Model the fold of this input.
Amino acid sequence: EKDGKRIAWVRLYKFSDQLNKDWREIVNKIKTEKTKSNFGGIVLDLRNNPGGFLEASVMVASDFLKDGVVVTQQTADGAKQEYKVDETKGQLLNEKVVVLVNGGSASAAEILAGALRDHKRAKLVGEKTFGKGTVQQPEDFPDGSGLHITIAKWLLPSGINIHKIGVD
Done:
């Protein structure tokens, strides 16, 4: 509680298959808390979240954003693929949101934080994020060695590529 207001503190450790399963339950708990008096908003804690599945970050963003692009993937030849808000979600469109980030917030965590910031949906608090804004394709070889090849970059809704820059 802060100044008599109840705050939902949601810590996302990574964007995994498990989050895909647990997110609906988290949203339902927040909606239950909203029905009680003095609900003040949500703290979305993405500190030290290394990222994970892009689709999971788009899923979470879709509950906070009414519409629009969450992130755009651009290949070296300039081709772009937009990942848009799933407009069937939108369960947390009116809550106040603060997102906590730090230098350990990377990749999909930066995409979520950057999208919420760019859409003026949340205030970011903390430190500049890591700056992982590329898509890599792993190639495994028969001798057990491997290679990750960068095949695209991610652009926030503002058009900014966060790679080596991070999100402020």
